[in-house]
Structure formats: structure tokens, C-alpha cells
């Protein structure tokens, strides 16, 4: 599998000494990966709190006219008054940040790590083992604007996060939408149009610029991922 060797970028964030690495995807898209944003023990504390207290649901969604159970648990949190989120025919209830106070502490850490960011919504995902996944998609809903910054925090089991370049703007979802997100790249292969990040406990991955317009991403099924992973994706709704 092509797990990326990342280039460390110095001076990107002089306000802290957390090591961050940036992958330039070209044409105004890039990804920042911070492998150890949150200390190990603190990450487990937040993991256990969220696992227990978040009102997880597994909704029925519609993709290409077919209904199926979303292959992971989810919950949505947003600041009141924002445009409501709808994806795959599903409109999640927006819980408040005040309902789950540790989320505000986590948001604070993420904001400090990303100067200039101001996220007002959060989609949480819980993968109960390697059969849970998210298929190929991009977070290109209009409510996020043309160049959203999307910050994705991992707690718990390590999983692969795969980015693949869209073949062309309009046909990408047709080409990729029904493809199961469980393929691995051949060992040792190098493909500039596909990148895999192994997301560690306490890590933060940030997609920026035109990544949602030009790339799709997935967290594929992995037989060996036998424990739970909680993912928090912070976004700004305009
Ligand atoms: O779990 C992840 O790392 C990705 C989640 C994701 O792609 C999404 O919520 O849109």
C-alpha cells in the first residue's frame, strides 16, 4: 500500500511546536497531517466520553435511488441558526455544543492548531470495527463554500484514509459512487492520483483549498481494524 511519506513543513504554525506535515495535491489543494495533536491519555479520555454520551444513530440514507443503512454511526452538532445539513437524503438533527461540553474543549484545541479557523459545525462518525466504512465522496455541499477547510480528528483504532483524484468534475460521482471503498493499492505502487494516510489515535488531518472540488475520499473496510474508531470532522457552514 502506498502510505505517504510526508514532507515536514516548518514555520507553518509558529504558535505551537506540534509537528505538522503538508502534502501538496496540486491545483490549489492540499492536506495537512498532524500525527500527534492530542496526547495519548487525553485522546482516550475523550474517546470514552464520546463513545458513551453521544446519541449515536445509524440512519437510512439514499444513494443513486437505493436506500441502505449508513455503514457507521453518526451524530451532528452545530451552532444554532446555520443552514441545515442534508446529505444522501438524510437531514441529521443538530445537537448543541453545550449538550456535550468536552466537544468545546476539543474544538478549542483544533482552533489553536489551525490559526484563522472558526468551525461552527461537527459531524461525528463511529466505526465499530473494520466492516464499518465511509465510501468514496467529497464534502462539496454548497453550505461549506468553494474551498472549505475540513479538519478531521481520529480517536481510537487506526484506519486508512484514502484520497483519490476525480477523473473529471461532472462524472466523478457516477464513476466512483458505487465502487466499494475497500481496495488497496498494490504494495510499493506509487500513484500521484491516490494518497493513503494512516490516521493515528489523537491525529488531525486537514483538507484545504480545492480538495473537495477535485478529490474524493474514503475510509475503506479493513478486516484487521477490529476496534472502534471515533472521527470528528469540523467544518464551517457559511
Ligand atoms: O472518518 C473519516 O476520517 C472521514 C469521515 C468523512 O469522510 C466524512 O464524514 O465525510
From TrEMBL:
Pfam families: 2OG-FeII_Oxy_2. Substrate binds at residues 64-66, 140. SUPFAM superfamilies: Clavaminate synthase-like. Residues 118-238 form the Fe2OG dioxygenase domain. InterPro entries: AlkB-like (IPR027450), AlkB-like_sf (IPR037151), ALKBH2 (IPR032852), Oxoglu/Fe-dep_dioxygenase_dom (IPR005123). It comes from the Eukaryota. 2-oxoglutarate binds at residues 125, 127, 137, 217, 229, 233, 235. PANTHER family: ALPHA-KETOGLUTARATE-DEPENDENT DIOXYGENASE ALKB HOMOLOG 2, DNA OXIDATIVE DEMETHYLASE ALKBH2. Belongs to the alkB family. This is Fe2OG dioxygenase domain-containing protein.
Amino acid at each position: 500500500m502506498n502510505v505517504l511519506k510526508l514532507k515536514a513543513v516548518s514555520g507553518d504554525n509558529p504558535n505551537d511546536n506540534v509537528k505538522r506535515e503538508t502534502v501538496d495535491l496540486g491545483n490549489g489543494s492540499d492536506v495537512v497531517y498532524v500525527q500527534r495533536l492530542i496526547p495519548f491519555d487525553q485522546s482516550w479520555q475523550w474517546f470514552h466520553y464520546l463513545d458513551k454520551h453521544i446519541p449515536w444513530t445509524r440512519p437510512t440514507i439514499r444513494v443513486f435511488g437505493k436506500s441502505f443503512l449508513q455503514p457507521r454511526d453518526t451524530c451532528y452538532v452545530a451552532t444554532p441558526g446555520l443552514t441545515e445539513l442534508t446529505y444522501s437524503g438524510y437531514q441529521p438533527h443538530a445537537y448543541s455544543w453545550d449538550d456535550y461540553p468536552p466537544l468545546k474543549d476539543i474544538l478549542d484545541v483544533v482552533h489553536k492548531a489551525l490559526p484563522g479557523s472558526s468551525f461552527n459545525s461537527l459531524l461525528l462518525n463511529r466505526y465499530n470495527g473494520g466492516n464499518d466504512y465511509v465510501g468514496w465522496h467529497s464534502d462539496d455541499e454548497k453550505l461549506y463554500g468553494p474551498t472549505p477547510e475540513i479538519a478531521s480528528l481520529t480517536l481510537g483504532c487506526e484506519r486508512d484514509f484514502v484520497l483519490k483524484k476525480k477523473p473529471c468534475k461532472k462524472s466523478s460521482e457516477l464513476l466512483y459512487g458505487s465502487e466499494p471503498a475497500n481496495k488497496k493499492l498494490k504494495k510499493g505502487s506509487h500513484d500521484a492520483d491516490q494518497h493513503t494516510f494512516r490516521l493515528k489515535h489523537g491525529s488531525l488531518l486537514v483538507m484545504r483549498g480545492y480538495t473537495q472540488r477535485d478529490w474524493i475520499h474514503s475510509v475503506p473496510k479493513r478486516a484487521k481494524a477490529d476496534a472502534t474508531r471515533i472521527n470528528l470532522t469540523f467544518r464551517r457552514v457559511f
